[in-house]
Amino acid sequence: MRAEIIAVGSELLLGQITNTNAKFISAELADIGVDVHYQTVVGDNPARLEEAIRIAEERADLIIFSGGLGPTKDDLTKETIARHIGVELESNNQALLSIQAYFKRTGRHMTENNKKQALVLEGSTVLENRFGMAPGMAISANERTYLLLPGPPHELEPMFRDEGIPYLQRLSGIQEIIVSTVVKFFGIGEAELEYKVQGLLASQTNPTIAPLASKDAVTLRVTAKARTAEDARQLIEPVLCELHNQVGEFIYGTDDDTLSSKAASLLTGAGLTISAAESLTAGLFTSLLAEEPGISASLKGGMTVYDIEAKTKQLGVDSQLLETYGTVSAECAEALAEKIRDRFQTDIGIGLTGVAGPDTHDGQPAGTIWIGLSYKKKTESYKLRLSGARNTNRLRAANFALYYLIRKLESEKS
Amino acid sequence: MRAEIIAVGSELLLGQITNTNAKFISAELADIGVDVHYQTVVGDNPARLEEAIRIAEERADLIIFSGGLGPTKDDLTKETIARHIGVELESNNQALLSIQAYFKRTGRHMTENNKKQALVLEGSTVLENRFGMAPGMAISANERTYLLLPGPPHELEPMFRDEGIPYLQRLSGIQEIIVSTVVKFFGIGEAELEYKVQGLLASQTNPTIAPLASKDAVTLRVTAKARTAEDARQLIEPVLCELHNQVGEFIYGTDDDTLSSKAASLLTGAGLTISAAESLTAGLFTSLLAEEPGISASLKGGMTVYDIEAKTKQLGVDSQLLETYGTVSAECAEALAEKIRDRFQTDIGIGLTGVAGPDTHDGQPAGTIWIGLSYKKKTESYKLRLSGARNTNRLRAANFALYYLIRKLESEKS
């Protein structure tokens, strides 16, 4: 079954609202294995809507509409479809009763135009609207299926999930289901990742492997189709293994894992405590860790040591060391990590220092960052050369610190 | 000019991401009076993309594409358009240099497929990508204009606003210009704000006043149309005055101001220093301040005091006080503010303590938060009762601390 989604509403074309309905419907259809080939948005204009329907009929067996079922003159979806497929509109008793009940319940006056909402396509299956007044409907004609849904997402989503999807499953006798796992990467760009696993990407058909675009993360989505969820998972498993073999050092988790949730679960799982001394990130590292409930078992605290005085007087870093090596140095990062670890008496100390930008600092270009990691009396440091804007660099520095921490904790485990 | 927007990407058809680009582009086009008649989404499939282009050409003069300009094999937008309108792709030197510079700067290996991103349509106007690698481009052919934009919103939005819109204005000879000022609010809900200024909202036609939907902020956008920017600004000015009269206490800035940029400029402007002791926010407050370049003149540092021991042993809060009042109390917040102020010898000390959630703590429900503010030996505190999820509460707490700091600094100024 090939589907097309047509969202109707001039407010979408004016950029006043985002078409979240298309995303929702598409994701639900993907889960039952229905391919969506096009999404279309058209305004409250019957001629253009009919043109969109004609085009959709040439390339889809299932056309799902959202919007245009309301009481106003602008709401023309069902009228246009009725004319187009040649059926009448008839008043639906059940829908009319619930509209009347709605007005009685809220004590508001029911104006005549609200009766329009109870009109449905003759011969259609009516879908109840539990969160609004306009019912949905489904009808088959000319070897196509037309499914009409109300525009407001809080009405559309439960209606489509609870009535639309089962209707489509009955209609098509679809048995196949889709299961996917998102694999999350850090420390590698999208292009480089794809280059490294190109053989795997090219050879897979079920499951498929595809990058999932995202601002903050590099990911691969592994998607399998099968008769049962268990069968699908068995198809996915060997692909995950192969990804770990090929690019495992850059994988930090799957699905809902974030760098901070992964680090937090490794820390609390191992019963380890942590503290951090932060210069350029100024508390961002500890703040990211604190996003995780239950982290208080591991996160004792930290210091923001933004200027030299804070580093020396407050934290106790040797001022001679800073004079010799500068604050943007492996030595400074390691000293920060060790001093904070000793001070808060934690198993692990993290030190973050560097040049966020936009200006250079201590003769070092913006984006030069050192991360110190002191773990049970052994201290190491990592250098980053980032090229983003100031706050991208700060966030990436904190994320790299989480990433190195995760790698350290994983290697200690094994 | 009739426009159609074609978003390219299978991830949209799978419902993995929402098509926010279509909304953004549509809203920008509405501002310059260009009508959008259709939005279309098509997958990474050249045959279907070409079909979508053919259909769009029959109903639009301007076709704007988003997505499919990246380095991977799936990225096919410009290749398909080149074939369709019959031009070659050529390597753009400027784009190639900036891609190479990007890899050099970050010390990462540039794989061969990245060169593909520097290919542009022969004869097109190239639009610089300041936040990514793939350049945009604009070209006219067959009495149509084709505008190609990268898919990631943080790349597309500045490119379209700063280069795409002026390009279209030049192209169409649009004379009227649009100037808008976004007024930013904190500490008031959108519905309440709209209720308070409903008279103003209803009476305005030029400039118009409208809420600008945003996940994180309550804003009003004041938009004027005029022949010159100066004329437009003169229309806007009295409306801003009236907003200040009616709801000034909730206004913290305009346009690109954020709570942290406003607080930072007030601090550095007054030559005041600041430090913070943070429990539930765990460094988020100092980290937000550190987003501003030049803040090192004012921000000395801070402490994350996540557990009781950190509060008492590290920062020196009286453990008797914590036993008497608990850590979720005005007394604790004020003690944190005073202790950190004294320790870092700053003019201002901020203390943040409370229950982020999801669980209750010290017998207090999630969302109970105290903010202490110590300014030149005078200390006060503010109570919040928030109802969000854990990290929404943490962020709101840090933002409220910035808001109270701004109000304090503003009142000291006047």
Automatic annotation (TrEMBL), chains A, B:
- The gene it comes from is cinA
Domain MoaB/Mog per the UniProt entry, residue ranges: 4-170
Species the sequence originates in:
Sporosarcina gallistercoris
Highest taxon listed in the record's lineage: Bacteria
Q: This chain belongs to which protein, by name?
A: Putative competence-damage inducible protein
Q: Which family does it belong to?
A: Belongs to the CinA family.
Q: Which InterPro entries match?
A: CinA, CinA-like_C, CinA_C, CinA_KH, Competence-induced_CinA, MoaB/Mog-like_dom_sf, MoaB/Mog_dom
